[in-house]
Amino acid sequence: MAEGEHSLRYIERDSIMHRLYPLTKLAWVFVVAIGLFLYREPVSGAVMLGVVLLVAVVVARVPLRDVLSSSQLIFGLGILLMIFHFFADPGEPVYRVGPLTITDGGLHEGPIFFFRLSVVVLASFVLIWTTDIRDLMVSLTQAGIPYRYAFAVFLALRFLPLVQREVDAVRAAHAIRGRASRSGLVHRFKLWQRYMFTVLINGLRKAEATATAIECRGFGAYPERTYVKTVEFKPASLILVLIFVLLQAGLIYAERAL
């Protein structure tokens, strides 16, 4: 199975984003999210989407095929949320689709919610693509978080690509045996139930094996833990956060002024 199919994984590159301190990139995601929740116009969200895409492809040097292969996860829920607001928000009727009515308020608010969700997911993917989870764990302990909790974050992010590989393997096995992608909706729903059962059982087995390995190594026996690889904070990495704070402030000011 091609490696590029797995979107929830660290992509090793020599880029500016990869060299930034992990907690700085985490703060960048929060800055992006806060600004998106303050926007009142969809144009600001579209600008932020373009900027974050530029950061992913140019600054972080993430291959475009990885961005495109993850587009369903990045934009799927955002599109559904936008369509929901088309019909749910109050306003003057604009279009009618059977018994449902699209309002002018929905046409305005829908894209705002689309960009609000999709851009945050994309920024989170950039964090995953450019951050070694071991470095993130070490930086969390340097920030004062107990290493047991930092290791829990490490395990959660480490299991994401493993679960994705399990889903891909089960889907491929079912497709080979019965062309699941061409079957009816009811049959495909039953197949998804089997997917979830298989992935759940395999996940529990991996969790049990991980717990046994942690116990055998005496994890948590000492109040402090040492690391072979150190992660150093460089004040220059705060430039990314500062740039986006200024960008967010400029977009918000432009909305209020215009």
Strands side by side in the biggest sheet: 1-2
Q: What's the β-strand tally? A: 2
Order of helices and strands: HHHHHEEHHHHH
Low-confidence stretches: 1-6
How much strand? Answer: under 5%
**Structural class designation:** mainly alpha
The general outline is globular
Mean pLDDT: 84
How far is it from the N-terminal to the C-terminal residue, by CA? 51 Å
Q: So how many helices?
A: 10
State Rg.
Answer: 22 Å
| Total domain units | 2
Largest sheet: 2 strands, antiparallel
Estimate percent helicity.
Answer: over 70%
Structural description of this entry:
Strands 1-2 form a two-stranded antiparallel sheet. The chain folds into two domains: 3-131 and 232-257, no CATH class; 146-216, no CATH class. With 258 residues, it is mainly α. The protein is 71% helix and 3% strand. The chain contains ten helices and two strands.
State the gist of this model.
The protein has 258 residues and is mostly helical. It has ten helices and two strands, in the order H-H-H-H-H-E-E-H-H-H-H-H.
